[in-house]
Amino acid sequence: MAVCTKWCEFKFYTRLLKGTYQNSRTVSSSARVTSCAHGEPERKHKKYTNTVALPRTDFPLRLDSRKRIDRDNYVHEKCEFSTLYDWQRKHVQGPEFILHDGPPFANGKPHIGHAINKILKDIIIRQKLLQGYQIHYVPGWDCHGLPIELKALVGETNLSAVTIRKKAEQFAREAIADQKEAFRSWGVMADWDKCYFTFDKQYVKNLLRQFHRLYEMDLVYRDVKPVFWSPSSRTALAEAELEYNPAHCSMAITVRLLMQRVPDAICSFIPPHIASVFALIWTTTPWTLPVNQAVCFNPDLSYSLVSIDGHSGEMYIVASELVEMLQQKLCRRVEIVTTFPGSSLGGARYIHPCRSEQVQPFLPAAHVTTTKGTGLVHSAPAHGPEDYLVALEHSIRIECFVDEAGCYTEDAGPALQGLSVLSEGNEAVMTLMSENILHSEQLVHSYPYDWRTKQPVILRACCQWFIDTNAIKQKAIEALKTVKIFPEHGGSAKSGGGLLAQLERRPYWCISRQRVWGVPLPVFYHKTSGTPILTESLINHLCYLLDEHGRDFWWTLPLDRLVPEEVLSEHAVSLDELEKGQDILDIWFDSGFSWSSVLNGQKVADLYLEGLDQFNGWFQSSLMTSVALRGQAPYRAVFVHGFAVDAEGRKMSKSQGNVVDPLDITHGGQDKKSEPAYGIDTLRWWVACHATEHSNIPVSRNVLEASAEAVHKIRIVLRFLLGTLHDLPSDVDVNSEENLYILDRYLLHLLLDFNQNVSQCYENYQIKRVCTMLINFITNEVSALYCHLTKDRCAPI
Questions:
Q1: Phi-psi bin for 147: left (phi > 0), alpha (psi -120 to 50), beta?
Q2: Contact 705/781 with Cβ under 8 angstroms?
């Protein structure tokens, strides 16, 4: 219908076109319009060249690399980009639009991901400003954590806590300065004079107070649980601090465990000459067998007693559904002797695989399935969340024989003590158990790695602080139902389903870290009982010390200065009975409370805009903390963008040598012929055109050339329009109907339609569609139609 309407309008225009030009000389002499719409009034005794419309402007069509850089700097200063934010805060009276900035890590130079994120935010808030909104956009930086600490300490060891903190702070400040300069050069409008930093005193004090609030609400607690542990970093990690390596190789083994008490249901089927009955287990972590504490079975499954190759002295227990798979794996004949329900395994016992003097139980568990393995699961509660829950249910004391470095402790025995569980320790366990390993194979599978050291992690039980996600989760899910997720068409990865799925399967949130560059976890412990000491008066005192002695006070002041007499009296303890906590808060806890600090704890952001990885990071941590303390989501909408990839679709990494520096895009590389300076406009157009539709954002020479060509097309039209308007008198009312021909009115109609469509796209954050519509409108309706047909409108002189 829209196409038909435009065609009818255009036919109507063409019928009138000839008459319009014929009557163009009869326009009132008072209409002194020299634009494309009208020619100049008649002048006598002038040169012939004055009768031709020759646009005049100093707006350049093309710029070489050096001039482009200078021009970008000139435009940035001349247009007073740096003052626009303050101006609109003072003069725009419309409703406030809050885009809350997710703080990037202050851990290095600005990269292409920064450009994608900051430019998208700038596009959105500038459009909102044009709509009459007053913009609230305060940039921030995440200044703590292992990523910064590791980079600050390259090549240095055995440093004191205070020295580490000083070096990390200096590194963070330098990174912030570099990133801030780049962000401003890209034309990003923001409150650059009031940025927030997670190491600021006010920010840290707010964190200490919010942690205490959660503690008083019983939403944080201390417990021994298996957590992701990085031996390479020697600290606990949150799920958001993991990267999964799909090419990780593990040794998978099928192990037999000698039964000490056989279920009564199968005793009658065991011939008298059978000397031994074994339970078969399968594991990809042989190193956990020394801390085996049970074998789990599913009471709803069916199990079989089988013989292998007709061996006269041995029989084995395995899930009935997996008998055929076992036969294929062993390449041996497996025969079923009898079948029995899984519930019959209750009360069965077996001999520990590494300590023959210990007898362990069979325990029922719902997490046991027949998708792989044998249907019997080796349980090490110190090294698995499901195993841990089973141990809690049956009051089993958790044993952990692995230290902070990922090595066996002396409890594992002299043959294993000091060996790394991920390397030689794993091999040593298989050597010790070689007689009972029926099958082994290399298994390539996805495995969690430390996001910074790129080394594999383990699950390890240790005493940590946790947020009680189970108490918050359902409220968070309900709050999420009120939040709009953009883009709406991106599937589960880019919709509310992505965030919801991450939220639903999160078991608990470990918020303590065993490092020093961060906010101290403000707790003291009773040396004997381990009882934590945490009160409001203590927090108030610590905030006072922070103001008086700086952010290192926790590491520089003695215990008698840190703990006030009021706290000692309140708990009836002496200083000698207390010890200071050594942990810091998780950086996701740091940044997850940015809404509380930057938005004063009351406002709700209209928009959070970050990359896909923040479904499991900042989006989620902000949601959990906000729901916990004020019962609502911290945002009304979430916009998710993808990540930059090279021409082959590969993720950018330094190891592959395919990283593109945004500075090389704007300023050019060393060889300006092969790596020309495209300028800020091309960088911004590339982001607008490619960053909002797909998970992978391509950046290559061809893509950048296409973006540069699009910008060039726009410049051609703008240059013509500016040049034609160079001598337009200021007193001419260009909107007066007597100054508008039918072609002018037709273009205004198209412009109105274009503006409405673009506004709708902006409302749904469909930035790529805006780019497509814009380039089509400028090159077709404005250039090919309007400019082309109005070039000869000048009246003869």
A1: alpha
A2: no
Q: Which residues have a Cβ under 8 Å from the Cβ of 318 and sit 6 or more positions away?
A: 280, 303, 304, 306, 326, 374, 375, 376
Q: How far is CA 793 from CA 481, 777, 787, 788, in A?
A: 58, 22, 10, 10
Decide if 790 contacts 720 (C-beta within 8 A). Answer: no
783 DSSP assignment: I
- Tell which residue, 388, 448, 458, 520, has the closest CA to residue 240: 448
Note whether 316 and 278 are within 8 A (CB): yes
Q: Are 296 and 364 in contact (CB under 8 A)?
A: yes
13 and 740 Cβ atoms separated by less than 8 Å: no
131-155 pLDDT tens trace: 999 999 999 999 998 889 888 888 8
Evaluate whether 555 touches 562 at the Cβ level (below 8 Å): no
Half-sphere exposure of 94 (CA within 13 A, CB side): 13
CA distances from 757 to 133, 750, 777 (A): 19, 11, 12
In this structure, what are the phi and psi dihedrals at residue 530, rounded to the nearest 5 degrees? 75, 5
Please name every residue paired with 651 in a beta bridge, in sequence order, or none if there are none.
Answer: 645
- Report the distance separating Cα 609 and Cα 602, nearest Å: 20
Q: CB under 8 Å, gap of 24 or more: what pairs does 212-220 form?
A: 212/522, 212/534, 212/535, 212/536, 212/539, 213/629, 214/467, 214/628, 214/629, 215/534, 216/536, 217/628, 218/468, 218/471, 219/467, 219/468, 219/471, 219/472, 219/628, 220/465, 220/466, 220/467, 220/468, 220/511
Residues in the chain: 797
- The amino acid occupying position 763 is E
Q: Are 734 and 35 in contact (CB under 8 A)?
A: yes
What does R_g of the chain's alpha carbons equal in angstroms?
35
Rounded to an integer, the average pLDDT of 407-414 is 93
pLDDT tens-digit map of 688-723: 999 887 778 888 889 999 999 999 999 999 999 888
Per-residue buried b or exposed e for 358-379, using 16+ beta carbons within 10 Å of the residue's own CB: eebbbbbbeebeeeebbbbbbb
CA–CA gap between residue 579 and residue 559 (Å, rounded): 8
- CA proximity to 197, closest of 116, 113, 105: 105
Contacts of 232 (CB under 8 A, 6+ apart): 450, 453, 455
Q: For 71-91, how does the pLDDT look when each residue is reduced to its tens digit (9 = 90+)?
A: 888 887 777 778 899 999 999
Tokens 């020309």 sit on residue? 676
Specify the 3-state DSSP secondary structure of 641.
strand
Distance CA 14, CA 20 (A): 10
Query: For residue 126, how many other CB atoms are within 10 A of its CB?
Result: 15
User: Which one, of 357, 358, 347, 321, lies nearest residue 336 by Cα?
Assistant: 321
Q: Which structure tokens are listed for 760?
A: 């709708």
Residue-wise pLDDT tens digits, 247-261: 999 999 999 999 999
Per-residue pLDDT at 736: 77
pTM higher than 0.90 for the full model? no
Q: Across-strand partners of 293?
A: none
Q: Cβ(487)–Cβ(693) under 8 Å?
A: yes
Token readout for 274 is 């059978």
